[in-house]
Amino acid sequence: MTLRRFSVLAVAACALLTGVVVLVVSGVLERSTSVAVDKFSQLVAAVAALVCYWRAALRRQGTARRWRMWLVAATASLVLGLGAWIWGQVFLGVPMPTSTLAPLGFLLVPCLALGGVMVLAHGSSGSLTDHRSRVVLVLDGLIVVGSLFVLTWVSALESMVRAWATTGVGFATVVAHPAAYLVLLVVLLVLSWTHRAVRQLPMLFLALAALAQSASGWVFAYLVSQGVTTIPTAADIGFMASPVLLFLSSVAPGSPRRERLPADRLRAGELLHLLAPYLPLLVTGLFVVVGTATGVRLNPLEVYVGLGVVGLVIARQLFTLIDNVRLLEQLKDSRERLRHQAYHDPLTGVANRALFRERLTAALAGPEPVVVLFIDVDGFKDVNDNFGHAEGDEVLRIVAQRLQRCVRHEDTVARLGGDEFGVLVEGRAPAPEEIGERVLEALRSPHRTRSGEHLIRASVGISHSARSGTSADELLGSADAAMYTAKRLGKGVVVVHGAEPVEAELT
């Protein structure tokens, strides 16, 4: 449905709701007729919401279908509750049918709707992508519910329950029903800060339905606690509005536009999400402390629920601690991967020019001798031209592997760029000429790839720190100059800066 058509439908639904409310509240109709119009109008709207959610779910796949199926179950429960209520109040004449299925049906509506909200949030964000995150979210919800229960029980609920709700069914009707809608509303508000899908029109109208239902529910509970046996029809305005808002939620279009939250909005949403379970706990704790300080004694139920909430907070903190340890390990691994990527050649896996120069500078600062080999692969351009760059890349990887095998583990092999490699030898080592000959011998064997064999030779320039105070740039420059001298003399030649060239034997 387009936004324009939905706007027309929303205006028409609100106008129809207003007419029904005026008709019921004005006193024009008799009491029994007014009650019948009230409840039947709710039932019609609930059935319409059920049908629309069902049709919308069938037309979709994945998360879009799953969260709507939860709302199908929620509206079906509402239809069941309203049907039982109408049967008891209109046909059987029971003023408040606590012996029917109505309280159970009403109580399941926010619980099932909350499941749909969680499915939607889980499917639209990576923040709830694992089992641990879902467990933490459940713990947060239980902490909120437990805290609100203790707070409202100490302040008002106990007197309400004692006044009327002496059975479990009565408690569900008077207390748990509006409290569950309140929890649904709080969860929607919290998730709307960090989840784009929860800020769309369907969830907005679901939140309005929860607000309307909870408001009338608390008014109903208050009137019951005052001993009222006949609830005025005006107290049902929220009950009448809620099914209509659910219907609008079922047909409201979602926003196809993907938006990116600004960083400050994300930080504020994350902070609100972290504080959400603890704010009601703090208020409840202060309320209980003030009450006990002024002589109010806690009954066993309040003590047990309070201890349960404390246990949930401890479990929540344990999960948070586990998450923090996991995040620190992931951060450490990420830093190591970034450092490796920053200091290693992505093609061959050996050190890059930056790491080679860093280690060379550090080696020159020490007392041990330093030898640098500058190696250029001869004939590499022919491999690229005749066999392609993929084949050339494979040859470079083989060259890097052979260089690593022919030097010590503590020596550094680096790709300095293109087909040029460097080797840094620190401390006591064979003579520079011997190291160069070993490199030529390692590279002289045929390089076997998937496309065949390639005979690769190299020109090697060598320099060493003959005097103190030699810089990394000077030593690299000397090795580079010696390598170019080797290339001018022919392939398979080792030139040590300041010495005679050494030519490899051909086989």
Automatic annotation (TrEMBL):
<dbReference type="InterPro" id="IPR000160">
    <property type="entry name" value="GGDEF_dom"/>
</dbReference>
<feature type="transmembrane region" description="Helical">
    <location>
        <begin position="203"/>
        <end position="224"/>
    </location>
</feature>
<feature type="transmembrane region" description="Helical">
    <location>
        <begin position="168"/>
        <end position="191"/>
    </location>
</feature>
<dbReference type="Pfam" id="PF00990">
    <property type="entry name" value="GGDEF"/>
</dbReference>
<dbReference type="InterPro" id="IPR052163">
    <property type="entry name" value="DGC-Regulatory_Protein"/>
</dbReference>
<feature type="domain" description="GGDEF">
    <location>
        <begin position="368"/>
        <end position="499"/>
    </location>
</feature>
<feature type="transmembrane region" description="Helical">
    <location>
        <begin position="100"/>
        <end position="123"/>
    </location>
</feature>
<feature type="transmembrane region" description="Helical">
    <location>
        <begin position="303"/>
        <end position="322"/>
    </location>
</feature>
<keyword id="KW-1133">Transmembrane helix</keyword>
<feature type="transmembrane region" description="Helical">
    <location>
        <begin position="230"/>
        <end position="251"/>
    </location>
</feature>
<dbReference type="InterPro" id="IPR043128">
    <property type="entry name" value="Rev_trsase/Diguanyl_cyclase"/>
</dbReference>
<keyword id="KW-0472">Membrane</keyword>
<feature type="transmembrane region" description="Helical">
    <location>
        <begin position="70"/>
        <end position="88"/>
    </location>
</feature>
<protein>
    <recommendedName>
        <fullName>GGDEF domain-containing protein</fullName>
    </recommendedName>
</protein>
<feature type="transmembrane region" description="Helical">
    <location>
        <begin position="7"/>
        <end position="28"/>
    </location>
</feature>
<feature type="transmembrane region" description="Helical">
    <location>
        <begin position="40"/>
        <end position="58"/>
    </location>
</feature>
<dbReference type="InterPro" id="IPR029787">
    <property type="entry name" value="Nucleotide_cyclase"/>
</dbReference>
<feature type="transmembrane region" description="Helical">
    <location>
        <begin position="271"/>
        <end position="291"/>
    </location>
</feature>
<keyword id="KW-0812">Transmembrane</keyword>
<feature type="transmembrane region" description="Helical">
    <location>
        <begin position="135"/>
        <end position="156"/>
    </location>
</feature>
